[in-house]
């Protein structure tokens, strides 16, 4: 495959990842505002929002090094869909559980995107991008692992709150 094809694939993937991270923020920020009874989830979500901001900066640095910009249209479109997804869970009586499931799925989706981008970076000789992409992947995997490790506790707390008549509000 000619190098320009790999470059095009790499740039498109970076722009998609940038939009994906903006989508993640549009999902997590409304969740964080609504959390009342799950301080451990709020703390981890807040930390991951800060990580996501850093991931966006890393992606912008990689794009800048290639004399490319992020796709404003993709960023806006995915941010909108993320906001709508987050809004959809607010009417559910088990919002914290639905958010936990969706966040776990999304973190694994993001990890898969970074794994793929790392392969393209290696194939295209974009070694300078590997450190930033690996850092993003590591953070996504850590968040997915945290969600996985804490799902049982979140579910148990949800049940406990419901049993004593609490609304189990996120």
TrEMBL record:
**Stretches of the chain forming a coiled coil according to its record:** 49-76
Q: Which domain of life is it from?
A: Bacteria
Q: Which UniProt keywords apply?
A: Coiled coil
**Record's Pfam families?**
DUF892
**Does the record's keyword annotation contain Coiled coil?**
yes
Question: Which region is the signal sequence?
Answer: none
Q: Does the keyword Protein biosynthesis apply?
A: no
Record-given protein name? Ferritin-like metal-binding protein YciE
Task: Please give the organism.
Answer: Rhizobium laguerreae
């Amino acid at each position: 495959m000619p190098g320009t094809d790999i470059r095009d694939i790499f740039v498109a993937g970076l722009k998609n990842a940038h939009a994906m991270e903006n989508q993640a923020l549009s999902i997590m920020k409304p969740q964080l505002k609504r959390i009342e009874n799950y301080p451990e989830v709020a703390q981890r979500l807040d930390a991951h929002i800060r990580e996501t901001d850093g991931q966006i900066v890393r992606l912008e640095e990689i794009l800048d090094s290639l004399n490319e910009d992020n796709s404003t249209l993709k960023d806006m479109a995915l941010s909108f869909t993320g906001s709508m997804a987050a809004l959809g869970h607010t009417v559910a009586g088990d919002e914290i559980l639905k958010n936990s499931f969706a966040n776990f799925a999304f973190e694994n989706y993001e990890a898969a995107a970074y794994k793929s981008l790392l392969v393209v970076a290696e194939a295209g000789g974009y070694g300078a991008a590997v450190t930033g992409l690996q850092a993003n992947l590591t953070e996504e995997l850590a968040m997915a692992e945290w969600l996985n490790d804490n799902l049982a506790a979140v579910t148990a707390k949800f049940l406990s709150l419901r049993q004593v008549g609490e609304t189990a509000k996120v």
